[in-house]
Fold:
Amino acid sequence: MENEEHRIKVPTTGVFDFPSLILGGKGKYVDKTELLYQLANDADQQLFISRPRRFGKSLMLSTLKAMFECRRELFKGFAIDNLPWEWDKPFPVVSFTMSSAAGSTYEKFTSNLRSLVEDLASEHGVPFDKDKTTEKNFEDFLKAVAEKSERKEVVVLIDEYDEPVAKFLDDLETLKKVRSDLHDFYEKLKVNSGSIRFLMMTGVTKLTKLSIFSGLNHLKDRTMDPRFATLLGYSTDELDGPLRENIEVFAQKNGMDFAAAKGTLLSWYDGYRFSPTSEAKVCNPVSLGSALESGELKNYWESTGQATIVMNRIKAADEIPADLNGMVVDQLELDVCDAETMPLAALLYQGGYLTIKRVRPSGRIDLGIPNEEISTSLAKGYVSTLLRNGMSDWNEELADAQDDLIEKGVEMLLKKNLKSAFAAVPHEWHIGDEREAKRYFLLFMKLIGADISGERQSARGRADAVLQDKTGTYVFEFKYGKTAQEALEQAKTKEYGNPWLDSSLPVFHVGVNYDPEKRGIDDPLVEACG
Structure:
């Protein structure tokens, strides 16, 4: 099996150049060329699409570049090889990432943007006039590249269009200047649209749409288009098809059968829905690929960087992950995100922390956390943002609680770890009511790996939380400034545990009270249910 495993290529997690991926033979390319063919032959040829980070946008653009350069040898065996693509007349392709123009100051940004255009001109053998503005040089460059080509047209592919602006989201005065310059720069694409065969711009967010995109109002947004809902990311069909052999290897490493391994991987990395009119969902391709490559189920999203703007916005809104499940918004709220106001729902949706869970008959959209990986990322990010001054004590409590939960079970967790966790709350973070106490509890339990969920409905009301492990189901009721006995009596009286009595494991009611004067919890009370 060891030799067979080495022969099985895994999906790429770090190679985003299509020719290198194919020619290097070190990774698996899951065939998206039929969708790319549709995209390239769209009735509208000036397009925009946004997706969260680590979703394969750069690889998509590199694949499009190879298609328009007519490098047919790279596409043998893929869908497009059998489609009526014009392989005999390559287009000149202008491809660049705007991360190259990003800078820590306005002056650095303008210098980097100018250098980017100068480098493009050199790459395509076009003069760069140092006496002209950056924007004018870019316009002249586009015209010259198109004129030099046999087709008299050019293809333009721009990645990370929003990166220069993202650097200044906490500096609105500089942000406005950067946006103004980018408006003038991108407007040259519109002015020269007649000589552009195909334009694709990608990014994570639409933070700057209202300003920058006023110079690009000819672009057609394909972000929510149902035809391209599975263009980026891996669908369930692809897990059953080209990725099946990889999942079988993962399953063997982890002592599972294929169905169990697939289900576990889906619960961790799937759940992203990008179109209100299509129920198609996809897995994060880099996270899933990393799990298949390593054979380990863990949070890869967090290890590839954190969206600081998202965490700062959560902190300002005084919300934690548990509160984000169940947001209800209009579609228009997801389609525009202004940098000055930064609506939380749009920012989290565009950033990949929330996704479409349901579309109501009215057209309003229910958002929720897509999977376990993102749930964990939000929780960890929230802790590092909000509790940064008390992280050392908290991390020690987390480590102890994780060990105790595994070795000694829920009883030790309730007797020792939960009280210690509340005792470690930083002094500057005030737990002002029952809701905040429950937030802290859910966050702590989530981070130690407990199978915990927030409010759960029963016939006579809502339990505050439900914890399940191999010893049983624990149904919690919280109080603030009262007693654990009062909490336990409410859980018993309203029979919160009844929905779980049919299971083979015992069910327990747990009463918890937070004492604001002691800044901690009383001893939790536990009683068998039924």
About this structure: The CA atoms of residues 125 and 320 lie 53 Å apart. The chain has 22 helices and 16 strands. The first strand starts at residue 46 and ends at 50. The chain has three domains: 31-223, 304-373, 393-528.
